[in-house]
Design a protein that fits this description.
- This protein has helices spanning 2-48, 214-218, 222-225, 249-252; strands spanning 54-55, 63-70, 76-83, 96-104, 108-112, 116-119, 125-134, 143-152, 159-168, 173-178, 185-192, 196-199, 211-213, 228-229, 231-236, 242-244, 255-262, 265-275, 279-287, 306-309.
- The termini are far apart.
- It is of the alpha+beta class.
- Strands 2-9-8-4-6 form a five-stranded mixed sheet, with no helix packed on it. Strands 1-3-7-5 form a four-stranded antiparallel sheet, with no helix packed on it.
- Strand 8 (143-152) and strand 9 form a beta hairpin.
- It is 19% helix and 42% strand.
Length: 310
């Protein structure tokens, strides 16, 4: 009899444990569902008041932007665009003010171009810059993490947030595309973190293939500088999707230019540029379909522009 009592007691404990687990799960679901309902109702209310408070790099749930292969030496500036639009047609009809807060890991100094702003109804756009400067010697694999929150301070309240991670990587050439839907153009940013130059054509005591440091390169004559390179990058694009800004200073120094003819018009679809050591260049391309967002690598697995380096 004692054995049966013990077995029954164990069975009852298991039943109680199962009931507790089910109750905890139900409570969690209720909390999540209630939060979802609250957010949905709040968003519906804000939309009914024509309150639109958005950003290309921040969101209510929080976004993460990671930049790999940062040099860990140069300043890194991130432009965060704000807007008060729902789409191309609907937008806020009144100004929306906001303030900005941030936190930064102690291995860098972070600066904002401003700590508060106003999205004017006349343009429905605004922006601010975040500049990250290392304050200690960083090594490969080190990370700088910055968290940003933007709060609307007008009649209606909304918070957007995002995390930005810079990872120090091996010296190489990397690129990214900054864009947003309804922007007429995108920016291609190419960064060369190589600290040396390679001799392309032999001169003096240097043979083709030799590497020379930046200071040595600067001491060379212009003629011999032209026989060296640090980063050689070839850029290819489809003119039916994006069109190169022909006024770009970078393009004026391009070589190996390729073209294609579409409906009787000649367009650039390939060119090669040189990028100095420890430097970067920005190239603007106009979009054929402005509603597209070609941001890369975030948001798109494949780049609309092909970039290859030597």
């Amino acid at each position: 009899m004692r054995k049966k009592t013990r077995t029954r007691s164990q069975y009852q404990k298991k039943q109680i444990l199962i009931i507790l687990v089910i109750c905890i799960a139900l409570i969690s679901l209720v909390v999540i569902f209630a939060r979802y309902i609250t957010e949905s109702v709040n968003n519906y209310f804000l939309r009914s008041k024509e309150f639109y408070f958005e950003s290309d790099k921040l969101s209510e749930d929080g976004t993460t932007l990671q930049v790999d292969n940062w040099s860990g030496v140069d300043d890194y500036t991130i432009t965060i665009n704000m807007n008060s639009r729902k789409n191309n047609i609907e937008a806020a009809t009144y100004d929306i003010s906001y303030d900005i807060q941030y936190s930064c890991t102690d291995n860098a100094i972070c600066q904002l171009s401003k700590t508060e702003g106003i999205i004017y109804a006349s343009s429905n756009t605004d922006y601010f810059n975040l500049t990250i400067t290392p304050n200690t010697q960083l090594r490969t694999g080190d990370r700088v993490v910055v968290d940003i929150e933007v709060h609307s301070t007008s009649e209606y309240q909304k918070t957007l947030k995002g995390q930005f991670i810079l990872v120090v990587g091996q010296e190489n050439i990397s690129y990214q595309i900054t864009d947003e839907a309804n922007s007429p153009y995108l920016e291609l940013s190419i960064t060369n973190t190589l600290s040396y130059y390679t001799v392309r054509e032999s001169f003096g005591e240097y043979q083709a293939g030799d590497r020379i440091d930046g200071n040595t390169y600067l001491s060379l004559s212009e003629q011999n500088k032209n026989k060296c390179y640090s980063g050689e990058v070839t850029i290819e694009c489809n003119p039916q999707e994006v069109l190169l800004d022909m006024t770009s200073e970078v393009y004026n120094e391009a070589k190996n230019i390729g073209t294609t003819t579409i409906n009787g018009n000649v367009y650039i679809n390939r060119f090669t540029i040189m990028i100095d050591a420890i430097s970067s260049v920005d190239i603007r391309f106009y979009k054929v379909d402005v509603t597209k967002d070609y941001t890369y690598p975030n948001g798109n697995q494949n780049s609309i522009i092909k970039v290859t380096s030597t």
